Amino acid sequence: MNCKGMIKYLPVVLLLCACTENELLLKEHEAFAVRFSASGIATEVATRAASPLADGATLRILAFWRVGESPDLSTDKYMGEGTYRAVNGNGTLEAVNVLLLRAGTYDFYALTPALAVANPDNDGGSPACTVSVGHGVDYATSLTAGRTVSEASPAVVLDDLGRHCAKLIFALQPKAGNITSVRIESAGLSNMTHAPVEAVLCTQLPVAGIAQSDAVTIAGSEFSTPDADLKTSAATVVLPRTAGKFQFRMNAVFNGMAAAEFVADMPETLAFAPGTQYTFSLKMKGGSVQLILEVLPWSGSVMSGQDNIGAFTPVVIHIGTWEHVEIPGETGNGSTTVGTGQWRPNPELDAEIGAFGLTSVGGEGLPWASEQGVPGETGGGNTDVRPGDSWGTEDVPGSSGDGNTDVRPGDSWGTEDVPGSSGDGNTDVRPGGSWGTEDVPGSSGGGNTNIGSGNSWGTENVPGSVGDGNTNMSSGNSWHTEDIPANIGGDAADPASE
Questions:
Q1: Where is the composition biased (Polar residues) (predicted)?
Q2: pTM, rounded to two decimals
Q3: What is the 3-state secondary structure of the chain?
Q4: Which CATH superfamily is domain 32-163 in?
Q5: Where are the domains of the chain?
């Protein structure tokens, strides 16, 4: 009797089991939201922990289903993408447009800022997954390969992002006691890589063979308020650049007088490598002004003592000197014109640049290239540099993202809060290789200080002579937290179909 009762309900039990099994199978094919976090952004090295992305930094993340044994954007299947924003200063990413996937194993490509990626489907015509990058963009990417996700385990920690652009800092260090006020009107370099440059995602920007026809200028409004010692500086981000002719130019106002223009041919052997920071400093010394170049890994701290373990000794090169500079207000002769004297390049310059490995756009010969791993930061709003007790020991903002932009002058060179490229025009990239029409005085070596007209940069005949060889100046880190805005476009990714 009991057996017959059980047999009566057996079809119902079997039907319920079949429905449950089908529901489980269907659930495995449902799309779910993948969650991401970012360990941070680093330059060329992996021996140190990366710094978290600053709050507000944007990322675009694309998922691919691998076809072969290794990741290959030209053959792998595009499954969708999403955009995210860094929050909390600890690597947390909140979704702006969610990436939806089904359970499986994927390769995840990330880029910051969240620039548009062209032709991710590789539908022919143009190369797959290309990105267009210009000056002023702190572009960094990463590939997080072979990560398995499911609805029960949807979290992915992205691998460190690597930078693909270079950072420039322009600084002025007046002579103490002889100058009462300074104001920078502009500073920049000519003959920079023509922008934009297109590159396949997660590859180096192909700048070799690209025209060097852009001028990059930082407006005076972007320079920090001069501190108690009248030091001021500003920064921007530029595309990498192969070696070639270019010029430095800074317009400065001293003691409220007419602006003085300091112009100099730069060494043709100098290249700008990605993930590297180049600081051009005018250091006033007596009746002369020295131009000093300091090179460091982007966000690398300066070696200032034995307790600063892991810091880098900067490459410091004396590029040359403007001799017989006359600043109104020093002599009391009533003059309102600044005499910039004559430019004398360092005769050993090319040899020094070659010795320090500064000639390659790939940065292979740089002193720290073999160490692989200097932490950096990108995006965000914290620009409050806290002074340290020695050069290069400042607490550089970028990790807290608190939005503080106060200037706190330190007790040594390099502690100023340096404004960076925030998308508001500070890079002022002007196409064409011409900065103006000035004929730089002193080009004939005859002491002429009149400014005549010419027709382009690079036409001056700058006399060469022996510089004074001073290479003692080292400026510390400044402004490492440029928040490079990017449009966050696109709708939420559709569930990928098998």
A1: 468-479
A2: 0.71
A3: CHHHHHHHHHHHHHHHHHHHHHHHHHHHCCCEECEEEECCEECCCCCCCCECCCCCCEEEEEEEECCCCCCCCCCCEEEEEEEEEEECCCCEEEEEECCEECCEEEEEEEEECCCCCECCCCCCCCCCCEEEECCCCCCEEEEEEEEEECCCCCEEEECCEEECCEEEEEEEECCCCCCCCEEEEEEEEEEECCCCEEEECCCCCCCCCCCCCEEEEEEHHHCCCCCCCCCEEEEEEECCECCCCCEEEEEEEECCCCEEEEEEECCCCCCECCCEEEEEEEEEECCEEEEEEEEEECCCCECCCCCCCCCECCEEEEEEEEECCECCCCCCCCCCCCECCEEEECCCHHHHHHHCCCCCCCCCCCCCCCCCCCEECCCCCCCCCECCCCCCCCECCCCCCCCCCCCCCCCCCCCCCCCCCCCCCCCCCECCCCCCCEECCCCCCCCCCCCEECCCCCCCCCCCCCCCCCCCCCCCCCCCCCCCCCCCCCCCCCCCCC
A4: Fimbrillin-like (2.60.40.3730)
A5: 32-163
